[in-house]
Every structure is written in C-alpha cells, then in structure tokens.
User: Fold these one by one.
Assistant:
Number 1:
Amino acid sequence: MSAQVPDVIELEPRFLPRVWGGRRLAERFGLETDEPIGEAWMVFDENRIASGPYAGRVLAEVLPELGEAFLGRAVVERYGYRLPLMVKFLDTADWLSVQVHPDDAYARAHEAKSGWLGKAEAWVVLEAEPGAQVIYGVKRPVAREELRAAARDGSILELLNFVPVQKGDVIYVPPGTIHALGPGLLVYEVSQRSDLTYRLYDYGRGRELHLDRALDVARLEPIALDPLGLRVGPFLSAPHFNLVFQSGPAALSPGGSIRAAVRLDHTEGARLVRTAAAYKFDSGEWLIAEPATLPSKPEYVA
C-alpha cells in the first residue's frame, strides 16, 4: 500500500479519572498520578495519532483524507468518515452509577447537538476479584413511577438484577438496559461512538441524575442474560460491532501487551477498518473489536 494509506494507525490513549476508578490502569500505563483512573479511551476518533506520518494529528481529521481506501466503502456508506466505535478499558474500585443508554432514534431526537449516537456496548471481563458482580436489568417488571420513586429514595437496588461475573465473561448490553459495573473489575468495553449516559442512582455521591430521560429509554422488564465465554475466532455479532478473539501476534504490530490502533484488513479484495484496542492474554490471544457494516440482530456466533 502507499505511504498515504497505512495498514495500522496507532493512537494515544486518553485517561480519565473517575470517582469509582482504581489503580490498575495508572500502574499498567506508567502514569504518575494519585487520581483514581477509571477509564482509558483506547480507540476514539478524537484521540491523537501516536506515530507515523500523521503523528500528533487527531484521527477524526485524518479519516476523511484517507477515505474509502482506509475505511472501506461499506463502513463509509453506513457511518460516513467517522470511526463508529469506541473502545475503553475500565478499572472499577467501586460501583459505577446505575445507568442506562439511549438508542440511535432517541439520541437523534433528543441529543442531536451532542453529536453522539445511541449506545450499545459489550463488556469483556479481563480481571475479576472474588465476588465481583454487575447489575443487568431489573428482577421483575416495574412501573415507570415505581422506578422513579425507588431511584429517589435509594430502594432501587432492591429492584435490580445482580449477576456474578468472572474473568472471561462476555456481556452484551443493548440500549435501554439498566446496568452498572461493580468493584474489583478490569473490563474491556466496546460500544458505539457515544458517551450518552443517563444516571438513575449514584449511591449519594452528589453527581447529577437524569431521571426523566433514563425513564424514557429504560426497559422495565427483566432481560435474559447468559454470559458468553471467550474462544478463538468471532464470538459476538451485534447490530453495531463484532468481537473477535484472535490467536498469535498478527492482531497488531508487535509491542506492549495493551495496544490502541485502527487496522486496515483485507478480505477477498475488500477493505474494512478494524477498530482494535488489543489486549494480549497470557496464552497469546488478542481481543479485537470491529464495526458491523450491515444491520443485524445481536447474536453469539456459534
């Protein structure tokens, strides 16, 4: 390929302190800070490019220049010249807020000025302390005003479905799912290009709640959940992204165990961007997220 269209564009992660954050991300990335770093935004089109001819530029500025030659026609036709995914690492020392994300239709109608999409996401549990849990939906059907009152008086936790998790679990979280990560987790999160979050409950930490919008989008009935285990090859196909567990070092150029890049892939002559914040497991596999180019129903790939 020409020098103008590289196979791999490595990105500089963005590190964000959070009230619930831990110490693992700061230690693994060698950050000199006492703040609790809860999120590392590994792949986002507002990240700066780390190396090569575009070093120092924001990825979003470069993608229109690279065009279909890098992104591929199918990605451009569905998403335009934007990177449609975000990939983060989350380190939780405390509970995240009980929250919910809107779908694309709600985001377009009510959050157009933000520039964000709706938010479907998936979690891959990389590390989990004994007894680690997440919240996933409600335990029983609830009425909108019942949930509002419970969010205000703190009894909402009695209505929620607490799920034990362990290393290797994969959980798909569609828009509208009430959810929260619990303490003691290191999680790889892939999502649509969105940070729209509506908080229902925050354990009295004083941050803003968004009850009206949360109740507009929240699913008020239980949602079945059967966490998937990691295995080599494609293992999760969702409407907006796919997850692949890949053997060997070919997932990205050689380097540290945590990488952030977008990678150009070739399949029978077609070009497809692969959004990768590759986490290298002890066994040598890499975890890769890629945008879906055709609408589909979420499914675990057999």
Number 2:
Amino acid sequence: MKTITFKLGWINATVRKVSETCYQLSIIHPVKCVQRFTSLQECYDVLIRLDKSRRQGA
C-alpha cells in the first residue's frame, strides 16, 4: 500500500491507503493519533483544521 508523509512545519503525519475505500491518517506530532477515513480529502481536511487551530493559538 502507498504511504504519503506530511511535514507541515510543526505537524508530522502519514496517510496510508488501507483499501479502496479506506485511508488511515497517523498523526505523529504534536499528538499521537490514528484515524481512518473514507477519502483522502477527509485526511487533508483534518490536517488543515489542525494547522489552522495552531495558527489561531487554540
């Protein structure tokens, strides 16, 4: 399976395609978290929200 690694400044995460309809998002830093989503876009949305919350000081 293909794995995509993200290093967005302070975020360190990977997305792995588990099956045709399942993507696993593993956030390594700033918090350890593993979640599964039905689309790659959902994984991107989570990373974008996490980045925005950090920029706003939340």
